[in-house]
Amino acid sequence: MANASKLAFSTFATLEKGILVVFCEEGLKFGPATRKALTPTGDLVQRAAQADRFTGKSGTSLDIVAPSGLPVVRLVVLGVGKADKLEAQDLVKLGGVAMGKIPTRAEEATIFVEFSSSSLKPEDVAEIALGTQLRAYTFDRYKTKRREGEEAPAGTEITFAVSNPTATEKAWTREREPVAQGVIMARDLINEPANVLFPDAFARRAALLKKLGVAVEVLDVPAMKKLGMNALLGVGQGSRKDSRVVIMRWYGGKKSEAPIAFIGKGVTFDTGGVSIKPAAGMEDMKGDMAGAACVVGLMHALAARKAKVNAVGAIGIVENMADGNAQRPGDIVKTMNGQTIEIINTDAEGRLVLADVLHYVNTRHKPKFMIDLATLTGAIIVALGQEYAGMFSNDDKLCERLTKAGMATMERVWRMPLGPEYDKQIDSKFADMKNTGGRFGGSITAAQLLARFVDKTPWVHLDIAGTALGSPQNDINKSWSSGWGVRLLNQLVADHYER
Ligand code: BES
Ligand code: MN
Ligand code: ZN
User: Fold this and answer.
1) N or C: which end of the chain has fewer CB within 10 A?
2) 265, 268, 282, 288: which to mutate for ligand 1, most atoms within 8 A of CB?
C-alpha cells in the first residue's frame, strides 16, 4: 500500500511516547478508559477547552503540545458531537479527521477508540481505521527531492486502543482492509502517468489479482479481431501501444448462480485523436481509465475479503492518439454485435470501447446485471458537478439500490433520463448510428448509444467524469483521484448480492 500507515490494535494501555488522539462528546464527555488515561494531566484538558471554547462539537478539536503529566508529545482531543448519531460513513470520516491531526513526520500515534455514551463494535472501529488509511494516501512515487525541512512520510505506526483488540483486528483485516486496498489500488492506477500505464501495462497490473484467486483472461489484438470488436480496435489503431481487454472473474458464490458484472472504460490516454483536444488540461486525460481502475479495485476488494458472490469485471483498455493510422471522422466501424457506427468525432471514443465490451460480457457471461463506469462526457460535469455521478439505467430496482449505497458511502449517484425520443439525435446518414449526438444532452445521447449494446439485461451506466478526476479534497481523500466507486459498488454487493 502506497504510504499507508502501519496499523496495530491493543487494549487501553498507558502511553510512553508519540501522539495520543482521544474522542470527546458534546458537553466535554469522555469514555472511562480515556478519563483514566487523562487523569495525570489534572484539569489541563478542562482549562484548554475553556480557553478555546471547545465543548466536543463535531468537527472541532483541541491540540495540546507536550501536555504536562503525560509522556506523549501531543494530545489531540477530537469532538464527535453526539456519538449515538454516528453512522458508518461518519466513522470513516472521523478516522480521516484523526489521521489529519497526526503530522506525517510522526513515528507513532495511538487513537483511543472510545465514546462515553455508546459502545463501539469491532466493525465500527474498522470503519474508523478505513478512514485513516484513505486519508494517509499520497501519490508521491515520482518525487525524488523534497523541499528543505520536508521529511519523507514516515509511515506512522498507528495503534488503535480498543476494548476488544482481537475481534477488532479480525474485522479490519477481513472486511475493511481489503476495501482500503481496493480504493488505493484504483487511486494508484488513475494517478499513474500514461507513459507508465499504457494498455498492456494496465493489463499486467490487473493480472496481479490472480494472487487472490481471481481468474484473469487477457484478450490481445488478434483475439479481439477474431471476435469482431472493431469499435474498440478502431479507437486504439492510432496508438503505438496495443489495445487490451481484461476479464477478471471472482466466483465466491454458488456454482450455478449467474454472475453480476462490472465493466470499465480504460482509455489510458485520451488526446481526442484526430478531433484533437485543446492543450489546456489535456494532462488530466491520463485519468480517462478511472472506470477501469474502479473495476480492478473492486475485484481486489471482493476477492481479498472472499465475498460470497460471483462477479465478473471486464475492462476495455486503449490509448486514443492522433496518428497517421488513427481513425478519421467519417469512418464507419462494425461492432461485435454487427451494428455499424459512423465516427463523427474521434474524441467520443469511450462509448465505442464500451459498446464492444458490454456486448462481449453480456453474451459470454449472461450476467444478472451489468454496471459500467466511464469518464464518458464533459457534459456530465456541467450537469452535476463533482459530487454526484450520472446514473443511466433500464432498471429501477438497481437504481434504487445504488442510490442507497451511494448515500451510505458518500459516493453518490443521480439518475438521469434515457428514452427513445433521444434516439434521433444519434441517427446517421450512412450507418446504423453515429458516435455523437450534438450539443444537447450530451451525456444522455452517449448513454443512449450504450443502451443499444446491452439487450434486455438490467444495466446501469455511471458517468464518472466529474467524480473520478480532480476529486474534491475532503477528510478521506487528499489525492487527485479519490478512487471513486470502489466503496460504492462494494457496498452494493455486500448489501444485496452475497449469499
Ligand atoms: N474522456 C472524455 C470525457 C471527459 C472530459 C472525462 C473531462 C473527464 C473530464 C471523453 O472521451 C470525451 O472526450 N467526450 C467528449 C464527447 C464529445 C466529443 C461528444 C466530450 O465530453 O467533450
Ligand atoms: Mn474523448
Ligand atoms: Zn475519453
Assistant:
1) C
2) 288
